[in-house]
Design a protein that fits this description.
InterPro entries: NA-bd_OB-fold, TRAM_dom. This is Deoxyribonuclease/rho motif-related TRAM. It comes from Methanotorris igneus (strain DSM 5666 / JCM 11834 / Kol 5). The chain has one domain: Nucleic acid-binding proteins (OB fold (Dihydrolipoamide Acetyltransferase, E2P)), CATH 2.40.50.140. The chain has one helix and six strands, in the order αββββββ. Helix content is 28%, strand content 37%. With 86 residues, the chain is of the alpha+beta class. A six-stranded mixed beta sheet has the order 1-5-6-4-3-2, with no helix packed on it.
């Protein structure tokens, strides 16, 4: 039973380590303060427009689907970013 627990613990550590490594290796294509011209492709639940930069989701308030807007990145998270119109 002890070997089973050790094996399971090692598997869990490996899964966590690899997940963290993948997240660290992920290339976020935007940085806070950068400016872009984007097209709003979708609408989020909260009413913000959704643009994508190299597949990376950017939420832009006060926009609607089909708008082409100039934006400035205001906050970057691991899987998405927030921007404002400029």
């Amino acid at each position: 039973m002890d070997i089973y627990k050790l094996y399971t613990w090692n598997m869990v550590n490996e899964m966590v380590f690899n997940r963290n490594k993948r997240n660290m290796d992920r290339n976020v294509p935007v940085k806070e303060g950068q400016e872009y011209t984007v097209m709003i492709e979708d609408m989020g639940r909260g009413g913000d427009g959704i643009a994508r930069i190299e597949g990376f989701v950017v939420f832009v308030p006060d926009t609607k689907k089909g708008d082409t807007v100039s934006i400035k990145i205001t906050s970057v998270k691991s899987k998405f970013a927030f921007a404002e119109k400029v």
